[in-house]
């Protein structure tokens, strides 16, 4: 199994760096551009989707009060929990598949913690300047300049956190009303609390805790060591090519016998790392796979006139001189699991009944009607789960001598639930036992979807 080194081990090593505040240096390159694209898509989805409307309601809304989850034309209820669990399984298998294939690309490019941390770093740079200025500012005593820059940074962080929190709460309570209520100071105590809570959580996580969330709070970093194998593509330093490292000037020609590798020990890969690790120490649990060190090292290789790729996506097998096996049993296994779960989920969504029926029997025993029939009462709870208004036929099926007494049809708006009191009567002489099983049925008038049935019992005299 691939061996990981942890920050703790590194900090305990002789000459370790200890715990310092990490001030990553900003750097551009191919992978940063890819990260920006991933972040931009995520931001557009997160901040944009909440404002979309669909059929006169918010397109994506987890309505906790009504216990309904709307996602465009589909609505899910608590009884659809199994389908929502399937979505979680799809995400888990997707994550396992991608981790085996290419390590922590999810963390580096699309994880909310990473993306928000990059945004907070951008705000920090805007207020306090580049890495060297920020380090100087950290060391400087209190001054008007320092206080103003710090205030500006924290102000920006709080604004981003507040917008993030309002958007998040807006997925659980209609966003337009929420924003109106917050602006007019009429928001409920509950909504105000959650906006405050998520503002504080975002500010703390992305502003203060940053990489510590990845180190100590995220379980994914812990179990990735059991997922990554010798063929996984992970950000790696090519030790055979880079060592022995040694400084030299830009463009300086190397003597054939200087004995040095390609690493000029410029430390740029360490300075750009958001988790403050040195990729040259080997594969580490704290590496979030952001590839900032690849961009940094490639630029140095360009300046020195060496080939790119001293730090690159490579497998352990490739670095040891072998050939990476792309198709391997674990990767294929997770791919098949992923595809099967997606197929099962799609089938489940397509075939789920568009109407639900629950039957509650009246608590009383039985009654005799004026004409001597035995009568039992029931409450039929019918819900239209379709996205359009529907007409339904109500009936009790399989009653040999009994008769259904109640409305024969019902019109329901999308998502509407109705409670219909009905009864069933039997002539006393036709009851073969004191306890007869009966079945209610609701079917669509336009024959869309299969009829839905629900069983109950009919009680008579012993
Ligand atoms: S950026 Fe490249 S050359 Fe510079 S220290 Fe890192 S690995 Fe060595
Ligand atoms: S070592 Fe490289 S890939 Fe890993 S977190 Fe640091 S900069 Fe990102």
UniProtKB/TrEMBL annotation:
GO terms for cellular component: plasma membrane. Keywords: 4Fe-4S, Electron transport, Iron, Iron-sulfur, Membrane, Metal-binding, Transmembrane, Transmembrane helix, Transport. The chain crosses the membrane at residues 34-54, 81-102, 156-179, 191-209, 331-350. This is Cytochrome c oxidase accessory protein FixG. GO terms for molecular function: 4 iron, 4 sulfur cluster binding; metal ion binding. Gene3D superfamilies: Alpha-helical ferredoxin, Immunoglobulins. It comes from the Bacteria. The keyword Transmembrane helix applies. Residues 253-282 form the 4Fe-4S ferredoxin-type domain. The keyword Iron applies. NCBIfam families: ccoG_rdxA_fixG. It comes from Marinobacter nauticus. It holds the Pfam family FixG_C. The lineage of its organism: Bacteria, Pseudomonadati, Pseudomonadota, Gammaproteobacteria, Pseudomonadales. InterPro entries: 4Fe4S_Fe-S-bd (IPR017896), 4Fe4S_Fe_S_CS (IPR017900), Cyt_c_oxidase_cbb3_FixG (IPR014116), Electron_Trans/Redox (IPR051684), FixG_C (IPR032879), Helical_ferredxn (IPR009051), Ig-like_fold (IPR013783).
